[in-house]
């Protein structure tokens, strides 16, 4: 039978062609069996011709045998048709549907044939592939949104800490009238600028779906004004941890064309990183060179491990502690992305004295 099936090549036939072919085989088999039964009945009839009870019973047995032959043939033909043309593709489709119901799309639907069931399996595989693609897009969108939320929560901590420092400063000196009116107004103006910057940041982060969508708004700013803002922020962050902060500048430009909010955000992240791991001191170097404005923060802490140097800017990198994971995994990854959006970059290294050293650079138009 296997040779006959192989000869008929039912695998390459359509379902209708296979059904017709099997019916032809069935008819041939039934007709052959019927002829054999007629000959068998005729021999039995002649043998019992002179028997006292006669041979009329032979006809009844012949009819029963023919009916059994037709019935058994139908059952065998239907079973053969199901096993050869329907069983395997139905099992494949049933297994695929169960996996899809369990949200498992990491498989392929494949059935090697040329009939309608093969077409159905290919259509099912196309549907599975599209579902997998849509699921990946949806999952990526959810992950990016979760990442944005984590970055948003992380990056608000530093400006809020700065605002807290200003509040404690005013709360300590204002009741005792140990602060001049000029210093009070200057402090309030600085606090107002930080509040407006946080408001713009909140509005920007609430409207984007991924970090790469953060808009860049460059503007001309006097370098002295920019460095004053950066120095003020660095002092507040360092004071909160009791760390000494020193800054140095190597600039011969008066105007820079940069995104102030983005530069402030990157700077606050890397200065907070330095303060967090410094033993007693952080140093900030400002440099304008070849159309780039760069900020280098160096601390006197333990520095980065070999693994940290390779992975510190990766999203959600787990350092040696929970704090390291929180800071390196979000802060430096955010800084790297923002610097690249500003056509600059971020470099992580260890200083010659062993502490951590982070350099952020931003492409800018420099007017001397």
TrEMBL record:
Q: What span is annotated as the signal peptide, if there is one?
A: none
Query: Which chain regions cross the lipid bilayer?
Result: 20-41, 61-84
| CDD domains named among the record's database cross-references | HAMP, HisKA
Q: Where in the cell is it found?
A: Cell membrane
| Top-level taxon | Bacteria
Q: Which residues form the Histidine kinase domain?
A: 151-366
Q: Which Pfam families match?
A: HAMP, HATPase_c, HisKA
Q: Which reaction does it catalyse?
A: ATP + protein L-histidine = ADP + protein N-phospho-L-histidine
The terms under GO molecular function for this entry are: ATP binding; phosphorelay sensor kinase activity
In what residue span(s) does the HAMP domain sit?
84-136
Report the enzyme's class at the first EC level: transferase
Give GO cellular component annotations, separated by semicolons. plasma membrane
User: What is the protein name stated in its UniProt record?
Assistant: histidine kinase
- Species whose genome carries this gene: Paenibacillus silvestris
């Amino acid at each position: 039978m296997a040779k006959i099936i192989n000869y008929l090549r039912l695998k390459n036939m359509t379902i209708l062609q296979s059904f017709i072919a099997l019916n032809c085989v069935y008819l041939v088999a039934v007709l052959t069996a019927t002829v054999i039964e007629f000959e068998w009945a005729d021999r039995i009839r002649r043998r019992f011709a002179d028997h006292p009870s006669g041979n009329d019973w032979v006809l009844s047995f012949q009819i029963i045998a023919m009916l059994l032959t037709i019935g058994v043939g139908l059952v065998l033909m239907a079973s053969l048709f199901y096993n050869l043309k329907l069983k395997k593709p139905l099992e494949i489709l049933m297994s695929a549907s169960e996996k899809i119901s369990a949200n498992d799309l990491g498989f392929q639907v494949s059935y090697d044939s040329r009939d309608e069931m093969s077409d159905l399996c290919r259509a099912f595989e196309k549907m599975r592939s599209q579902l997998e693609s849509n699921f990946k897009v949806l999952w990526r969108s959810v992950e990016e949104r979760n990442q944005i939320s984590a970055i948003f929560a992380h990056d608000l901590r530093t400006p809020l800490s700065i605002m807290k420092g200003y509040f404690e400063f005013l709360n300590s000196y204002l009741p005792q009238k140990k602060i001049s009116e000029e210093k009070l107004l200057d402090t309030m103006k600085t606090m107002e600028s930080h509040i407006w910057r946080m408001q713009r940041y909140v509005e920007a982060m609430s409207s984007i779906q991924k970090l790469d969508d953060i808009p860049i708004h460059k503007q001309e700013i006097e370098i002295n004004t920019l460095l004053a803002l950066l120095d003020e922020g660095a002092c507040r962050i360092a004071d909160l941890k009791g760390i000494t902060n020193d800054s140095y500048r190597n600039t011969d430009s008066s105007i820079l064309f940069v995104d102030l909010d983005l530069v402030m955000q990157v700077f606050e992240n890397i200065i907070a990183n330095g303060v967090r791991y410094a033993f007693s001191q952080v140093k900030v170097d400002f440099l304008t060179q070849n159309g780039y404005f760069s900020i280098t923060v160096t601390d006197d802490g333990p520095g980065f491990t070999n693994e940290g140097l390779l992975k510190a800017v990766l999203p959600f990198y787990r350092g040696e502690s929970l704090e390291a994971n929180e800071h390196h995994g979000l802060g430096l990854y955010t800084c790297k992305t923002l610097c690249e959006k500003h056509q600059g970059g971020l470099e992580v290294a260890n200083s010659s004295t062993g502490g951590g050293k982070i350099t952020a650079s931003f492409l800018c138009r420099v007017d001397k």
